[in-house]
Amino acid sequence: MTLRSGSMVLALVLGLLVAGCAKKQAEVSSSAPPATPAAPAAPAGPSQAAPAAPATPAAGTPAAPAAAAAAPAETGVADTTAKLAAAEWALKQDEIKHDPDGQWASEAAASSSYNDAQGDAGWSPKQATGAPDVDKYSDDQHAWAPKTQDGGIEWLDLKYLKPVHASEVRVRESLGSGAVIKVELFDEAGAAHTVWQGVDPTKELNYLILKFKSTEYRVNRVKVTLATNVIPGWNEIDAVQLVGKP
Ligand SMILES: [Ca+2]
User: Fold this and answer.
1) pLDDT of 121-148, one tens digit each?
2) Smallest Cα–Cα separation from 243: which of 189, 169, 192?
3) H helix intervals, the chain
4) pTM of the predicted model, to two decimals?
5) What are the residues facing 57 on neighbouring strands?
6) Mean pLDDT throughout 90-103?
7) Chain-centre distance of CA 199, in angstroms?
8) d(CA 3, CA 98)
9) Taking the CB of residue 14, how many other CB atoms lie within 10 A of it?
């Protein structure tokens, strides 16, 4: 082998190596998005949870960022996946918080409250009014909690300033998620309409999102019923958004 052919072989080998690296990088960046599905909580399509009910339950937003870390062993991919999930989570939170058709409750009453909390006290029904203010899946006094952990049926009754033809309800669960069993809308005459009844798929800090055909009546009151014994431990609700047009 001559010196020249030797260096040509070397150049060829180097070329192949470089091409190999480039390929590998492309796989990392392009394979990252497909890995994300592990993170966003199933945008549960038509859920089988409540066949008879008109509403479609969904654990609405991408799962909290922490869930993304369960990704592949390669640190780079895991980092990227976690970042994508975190960004997606942040975008979804922002979108919901600023939804022009959404409104947060202005008043609330409940079947009971932790420590019999009233008024502005921690865990009182009022803690479920206004925009979300619990940022971590945890026991937090900025959410409503019933008096006992696993007592069974409890409810949260919320009022909204602007009556709307409702098309969606978003229940932000911040602890013991998954215990909601029913959501009712009240028309302006005060009659209740069950818009969803079933198994709540919500996990961690997330929204139970119920979408349905826009109501013919206008709604300014929503009642959320829980079976707290379904999910052992405390169940807390941070906020409830009513979505619809006047
Ligand atoms: Ca709250």
Assistant:
1) 999 999 999 999 999 999 999 999 999 9
2) 169
3) 3-35, 75-97
4) 0.73
5) 210
6) 95
7) 15
8) 69
9) 10
Q: Give residue 56 CA to ligand 1 midpoint distance, Å.
A: 24
Q: How far is the CA of 32 from the centre of ligand 1 (A)?
A: 34
d(CA 123, CA 130) in angstroms, rounded, equals 14
Q: What is the pLDDT of residue 77?
A: 82
The Cβ of residue 92 has, within 10 Å, a number of other Cβ atoms equal to 16
CA distance 94 to 165: 23
- Residue of 226, 243, 230, 232 whose CA lies nearest to 110: 226
Ligand 1 geometric centre to CA of 83 (Å) = 26
Which residues fall inside 5 Å of ion ligand 1, going by CB?
127, 133, 142, 238-239
Give residue 76 CA to ligand 1 midpoint distance, Å.
Answer: 36
CATH topology (fold) of 102-245: Jelly Rolls (2.60.120)
